[in-house]
Amino acid sequence: MSALRHIAVIDIGKTNAKVALVDLATSSEVALRRMANAPVRQAPYPHHDVESLWTFILDSLAGLNCEQRIDAISITTHGATGALVDASGELVLPVLDYEFDGPNGLAADYDAIRPPFAETGTPRLPLGLNLGAQFFWQQKRFPAAFAHATAILMYPQYWALRLTGVAANEVTSLGCHTDLWNPWTAGFSSLVDRLDWRGLMAPVRPARNRLGPILPALAARTGLDARTPVFCGLHDSNASLLPHLLSDAPPFSVVSTGTWVVSMAVGGREIALDAARDTLVNVNALGDPLPSARFMGGREFSVLTEGQPETWSEDDIGAVLARKTLLLPSTQQGSGPFPHQAATWLDAESINDGQRFAAVSFYLALMTATCLDLIGADGPTTVEGPFARNQLFVGMLAASTGRAVVASEATTGTSIGAALLASDQVMAYGKGERIEPPTDRAWADYANAWRVAVEARG
């Protein structure tokens, strides 16, 4: 085949699934397909609708290929998700939705065997957010089905298996608060051997590895060239980070926004991570440990702004800053830097829709600034994903950190990075607008008032 230029990126997010066509010559998205992604709330437990997603993926590949020939396929997905497959590649159990609370029922048993934070960099998280807890629960609750599994796959590599027939795993998903990976030794954690799962773990391949060409039947179904290569793929937040990891000089940080807001620090200050505040050690696409923190900011934004227009005026901003209308954490409890605090509004009587939108945007920025502080972030911060288009968010993030913020121009921050897996070049990457901290002291004063109010709650 000719040089790889147009890369189809399969991007399975928790809220939306996308297939983007990325032009590597311009480092830009030239086409995008999207569908809502909601779990199936049916027996045996809430699970991902992989067959609907599969139809969407194949239809999208076929449609995009009609517009522009696809040269290769890359994959990125949300974390905390994995698949149990048999020798034929079929699921032995549905792919569990990590927001299902079933694994909590075996929390005491799991806590007795999971490795410590010092070994894995993984904090103990609720529900199924620790992937090891999901597999542990499935093995205990469905032993007969689990016994038929011949491979444990991370979610990006499940889709790669369906595309190529090749079973693999990859470190960015293995290292995403799973309890399954030791980032310091670049190997499986003690939990894997304790539960006798090592033989089930598919081989670990680099994210850039070409697993193989698309299966012949899929080539016929989509119209793609039968030689179209499929790359191993990676976790979505690390896909957002990869372009910067390849081109930026440390120190810097990247904030990947979607259902989760994930902050990642490269070359920052040495700091002890606090497992109780949802900080963790991720693993980047080069295999290196990566101090990270996150909260469910996209979900919070959706809940807080549902049914309201996303409009505001300069007067609205001035009123919120002057009155110090504050939203204190957290509307989504159980994770994030304030996992046990309940959301509270201060001085919010009779605010209009524009003022509420401004206060919500400021709250999300201040939560992000807290996450960045917890991981020792330094240097400029690049925001990827939907929040990059929210001027109030990026302005308050600059004000509260005292550092420049770069608002990425990419519609889907993960797609450019995932597409780079198909390139051996370090591409010039269109950064977007650079926002310096506001000169108006009212912004920094607002951020300080928020911090004081949060601290006063204990």
From TrEMBL:
Annotated Pfam families: FGGY_C_2, FGGY_N
Family: Belongs to the FGGY kinase family.
All residue ranges annotated as the Carbohydrate kinase FGGY N-terminal domain in the record: 8-242
Keyword flag NADP: no
Keywords: Kinase, Transferase
GO terms, molecular function: kinase activity
InterPro entries: ATPase_NBD, FGGY_C_2, FGGY_Carb_Kinase, FGGY_N
SUPFAM superfamilies found in the cross-reference section: Actin-like ATPase domain
Domain of life: Bacteria
CDD domains reported for this sequence: ASKHA_NBD_FGGY_NaCK-like
Protein name: Mll5701 protein
GO biological process, one term: carbohydrate metabolic process
